[in-house]
Model the fold of this input.
Amino acid sequence: MRSTQLTGHIPDPHLITLYAERGGSMIHRLDPRFKAAVLVWLVLLVTLARSAWLLVAVWAGTILVYRAAGLPLRELVRWYTVPALFVVSLVILLIWGEPGRPLVAAGGLVLTDGGLLLALSLISRALATVTFTLTLLMTTRYAHLARLASTVLPNPLDQVCLLSYRFLFTTTGMVGDLMLAVRSRGGGLVRGMLTRSRLFAAVFALSFIRAYDRADRVGRAMSARGYRGQLAPSQPFPRLPAFQAIVIGAAFLGLAFAAWAGLPGFGGGAS
Done:
């Protein structure tokens, strides 16, 4: 298994697969359909919740589940960098002028405690979803992910997802080898982009051409071996345990009631 990595701030598919295939925690043993349903429930929860403190509690809960699965916390913190920067780039434009007690005023812009709570809620929404998505990927074997994709997604979207996942390793390994060669010659991604952007553009274009050529050769090889547009997963799902089905059903019903009744945290209380 290749270990070349573009950067420590992007999830490494090799590491994700390693934990998924070799992990033995209680979270690993949960039914993949149950974990996928929990992810859907979590997305609905962070969408409907209005309390910043409830969202922070949900984020903390996803971190506890992540750690209960025996997954690396240090890597999670590094993987937070990209989604956190993306959210902050949006939040910095939205926090000014929010209703609330003024905290800072400069140049006609007013930062209130409501603006800070808005920033906290948006960051918590994003990172809670990222954390549990990583938990799902790092605790579910590829055979089960393939079966889940073929069950949920229509053809050919399921085939696109499965093949994209497979070639993700090849593509990241190829670009990672490129970056390793650049660093060994005294270069770097940021510095190289600023000083030799034309050279980097040519190198990355060549990488995608090579990837396309390899994909074409692999496609022809698959056709020669009888591939007709359908990769059938080999492992069927066992029956969903009754307890897990009851738990997820109750969770969806509880969330629907909380949103409908406007309970505290869902519009019926202070943020």
